[in-house]
Amino acid sequence: MRENILFPASRLVMGSLYKADTKGFGGVVLPTPVFWFNVAIEKGNEKHWNETDWGRIIRNVGEKGFPKGQYNNANFAWKIIDGDSVEVNMEGNKPCDHEGYAGCWVLRFKSHYAPKLFNLDASPLTLPEFAINTGDYIQIYGTVVDNASDLKPGVHLNFSHIAFVGYGQRIESASIDAKDIGFGKGIMPKGVSRAPVVKTESATPPPPHDGILTTKIMLPTANGMTYENYKAVGWTDEQLIANGLMNG
């Protein structure tokens, strides 16, 4: 189930319209770069986001995409959070503590393609790259589609065209760039190997486990990441072998 949707003007509160992420959780390289950002839509008199015009469209896609009623599950991934929530999330943060979240519904968008940027009159945006920052205001046109997953049911919020509405007070990210931390400096402990270490003291080899121990051997170019790490973010065996990350 897929529906086109024009969202109301919203504030960019996290992420970037210009820069794609190339690594996922734990630093694992993604097979395809991902553009993502969060926007905050100011609340009105509604008690729930599904009472808004845009929210009803998203709710409808979830209901029709999952006719067995999975959308009623508390873990259904609507990609929308209450910016006033005081519940601690998986990252150990409360949504209400994020700058720009309070008093808003916060929506998370993701795509493998960069958005097309426009002015409000639909003419192409001519501002220099990175001119739109967190804290500024935009309007998004895109799609909402069910993810067709019985394991993790939910919807995807995709963007295609984005109009620049105007500037807002800049939101400075408090996150740390891993490149600035200084990982890898200093003397490494004895016994460290950049390749998997195989035990040789036993004369009887361990039995194979679903073929993984005998065929899924990661190469030094995988930077110490396991086969499971790469599979978790979408890599196929063919991609791992073609990129020199796994022994064929």
Structure overview:
- The protein is of the alpha+beta class.
- It is built from 4 helices and 9 strands, in the order ββββαβββββααα.
- Strands 1, 2, 3, 4, 5, 6, 7, 8 and 9 form a 9-stranded mixed beta sheet that branches.
- The relative contact order is 0.18.
Task: Describe the structure using short key phrases.
9 strands, 248 residues, OB fold (Dihydrolipoamide Acetyltransferase, E2P), single chain, globular, 4 helices, alpha+beta
How many H/I helical runs? 4
Cα radius of gyration in angstroms: 22 Å
In total, the number of strands is: 9
Distance between the termini: 38 Å
Please outline what is shown here.
The chain has 2 domains: 2-166, Nucleic acid-binding proteins (OB fold (Dihydrolipoamide Acetyltransferase, E2P)); 208-248, no CATH class. It is built from 4 helices and 9 strands, in the order ββββαβββββααα. It has helices at 53-65, 212-215, 227-232, 237-242; strands spanning 2-6, 10-15, 21-23, 29-42, 80-82, 104-111, 116-118, 137-146, 155-166.
Layout of helices and strands, plus pairs?
Blueprint: E1 2-6, E2 10-15, E3 21-23, E4 29-42, H1 53-65, E5 80-82, E6 104-111, E7 116-118, E8 137-146, E9 155-166, H2 212-215, H3 227-232, H4 237-242
Parallel strand pairs: 7-9
Antiparallel strand pairs: 1-8, 2-4, 2-8, 3-4, 4-6, 5-6, 8-9
